[in-house]
Amino acid sequence: MGTDGVAVVDSGSPATQRAFLEQHLERLTAHREKLEIRFRRSEHSGPEVLSVPWSAVNFRRKRQIIPGETTSANLGKPIRSDSRARLIEAIAKGRYWLAQFMTGEVTDTQAIAKRLGCSDRQVRVTLTLAFLSPVIVKRAAGGTLPSGLGVTLLCDLPVDWEKQVQVISHGCAR
């Protein structure tokens, strides 16, 4: 028994604790910032209210992206879908025009430019994309190149494939 004549249950079986609560607890109300506990004191006196500070436990897990073992360039946004489509189209054109040169179908970039109604410079820039590393082409097709890389930046890459991949992995193409 406690000092005020109410039995105190510190431990015991769940059945004992349940019996104690049924005998003494009138109502338990959970509010946003507190628990309100109403006890039955006796038949002659009204209920006693105890207010206990409380906050609900948030059961939502924090979600975050855990990066794998990738380069820092992959941690940013991926290439935009419209830039990706233009880049893949330009790579295909460059490879097609290179095949035309190799078969002798065309002899210079001016012939292609004249046929397409574009500048000779545009044809030469597009042709450089035919020499991109297969790793970069695969990343372009998969949409995993970093944002900001497009035809203009990729045409200035070094000729060596390993150096191309290094430049792209470091996040700059110049």
Number of continuous helical runs = 7
State the helical fraction.
Answer: 40-55%
Strand order of the largest sheet: 1-2-3
**Low-pLDDT stretches:** 71-75
SSE series: HEEEHHHHHH
What would you report as the Rg, rounded to the nearest angstrom?
A: 37 Å
* Strand tally: 3
**How far is it from the N-terminal to the C-terminal residue, by CA?**
82 Å
If you had to describe this structure to a student in words, what would you say it looks like?
The protein starts with 13 loop residues before the first helix and ends in a 5-residue tail after the last helix. The longest helix has 23 residues, at 81-103. Strands 1-2-3 form a 3-stranded antiparallel β-sheet. A hairpin with a 3-residue loop joins β1 (25-30) and β2. The protein has helices at residues 14-24, 81-103, 109-116, 120-128, 134-142, 151-154, 161-169; strands at 25-30, 34-39, 48-53. It folds into 2 domains: 14-53, no CATH class; 73-169, no CATH class. 13% of the residues are buried. It has 174 residues and is mainly α. It is rod-shaped, with a radius of gyration of 37 Å. It contains 7 helices and 3 strands, in the order αβββαααααα.
Features:
mainly alpha, 2 domains, rod-shaped, 3 strands, 3-stranded antiparallel β-sheet, 7 helices, 174 residues, 42% helix
Summarize the structure.
This protein is mainly alpha-helical and 174 residues long. It has seven helices and three strands. The chain has two domains: 14-53, no CATH class; 73-169, no CATH class.
